[in-house]
Amino acid sequence: MKLELRGITKRFGSLTANDHIDLVVEPGEIHCLLGENGAGKSTLMNVLYGLYQADEGEILLDDEVQHFSGPGDAMRAGIGMVHQHFMLIPVFTVAENVMLGHEATKFGGALDLAAARKKVLEISDRFGFNVDPDALVEDLPVGVQQRVEIIKALSRDAKVLVFDEPTAVLTPQETDELIDTMRQLKAGGTSIVFITHKLREVREVADRITVVRLGKVVGEAEPTASNSELATLMVGRAVELTVQKDEPKLGDVAFSVKDLNVIDPLGLKVVNDVSFDVHAGEILAIAGVQGNGQTELTEAIMGLQPRMTGTVSLNGTDLSGLPVRKVLDAGVGYVPEDRSEDGIVKNFTISENLMLDRANGAPFVKAGSLQLAYRDRFARDTKEEFDIRAPSVETNAGNLSGGNQQKVVLARELSRELKLFIAAQPTRGIDVGSIEFVHKRMVETRDAGIPVVVVSTELDEVAALADRIAVMYRGSIVGIVPGDTSRDVLGLMMAGEKPTGAAA
């Protein structure tokens, strides 16, 4: 099916999110829509999917003009969408999620769950998804949940499939599996719109690339274009794609974790006797495939894991077992890996989110009164410094793109006085220009003599930032190696193999 967008314009008050955008996606083509967060990519696709109504322009499928009053119309026309934040009911099974909104019934009005299960198995077998139709969604890894979203779209005979930042929450391995799936879909004749800001993925899978900046199409490129060329089109300026940093000026050990264990609600040890030290002025990266205890480790450090043993100390002060408030007050900055659930309050404004860590005292609160003028001035300055793309600081954080939500979290944590900075997946889901900025700020934090702990599944990020790398596997640290250790060695360690000479 051929998709054509002509002159699509979408405004939100004084903000023009899409400005007369033209786009053509040929049948059986993977067309990448590349751009920074806030460039208008997702808005454009939400217009296509019927979630928004365009102020101007038209949508054509096989040269026929379409009028979508909602997603139901778009789906009936053959358009499917896999959203960045999955539209699944966690307590429902896979089959129940797939049939939701399109419930087939048997004689007497009973739901035909067997038909939904059969459909899941058919599509799962066709693409090698290995998805159990009876599994609860909340029990599935993120990568498998995404396959459920794809199965939902394909079960409704989608001929055009939109992937909105699909790799933002995936590990490198899951990303490779998704790319294979996209190629299979293309081979079967499905047209794909792939929204992303990750240059490697674009060059690997795209047939054609359209670049959007500030709501406008600014150019088209071939997959053979260099990373630098694509980044310049995206951002509108030359972008430094490598992290510039000097040799670390190490101080004394400032942060120490000793014999840390975490037991999950089922009684399983998910963090197993983990110990490491971080010097003042050092970045320690914790690498590993998602789900090997990294989440629980950072949560235990922050006081979010009640069933833990061992010690956590910062500059000689024991933080073990302290509530989160006291850990933050000790000077710990924390970026959680799930920004939308744990990093922001969606129905709070940007201003309100930026003061969350400091809502219990001066300068934001004096004599029990919120200092609105100070808060809003601080928010405006911070919004500009961190390039948070939003109409104003009164915009609700839940209305921001994923990358701009991440910027709010980073801005809040990095704009206060820190003694330790912990960042879990700090650049997950943010664009190349923002990554450059975030990495620069993290190196500046390290150069200011503050210990930094980065947890990342992105090996490129780990290699670029780390002075030392600790690799986790099944809850334990396999070894701690220098920051310039090769990807091959790190890959073996991520599979549980301890390299010669690695620290315990």
From TrEMBL:
CDD domains listed in its UniProt record: ABC_Carb_Monos_I, ABC_Carb_Monos_II
Gene Ontology CC: one annotated term: plasma membrane
UniProt subcellular location: Cell membrane
Domain of life: Bacteria
SUPFAM superfamilies, A to Z: P-loop containing nucleoside triphosphate hydrolases (SSF52540)
Domain ABC transporter residue range list: 3-239, 255-499
Membrane-related topology note: Peripheral membrane protein
Keyword set, alphabetical order: ATP-binding, Cell membrane, Membrane, Nucleotide-binding, Repeat, Translocase, Transport
KW Transport (keyword) present: yes
Main location: membrane
Keyword check for Zinc: no
UniProt-recorded Gene Ontology molecular function terms: ATP binding; ATP hydrolysis activity
Pfam family, one: ABC_tran
Protein name as it appears in the record: Nucleoside ABC transporter ATP-binding protein
Source organism of the structure: Paramicrobacterium agarici
UniProt lineage: Bacteria, Bacillati, Actinomycetota, Actinomycetes, Micrococcales
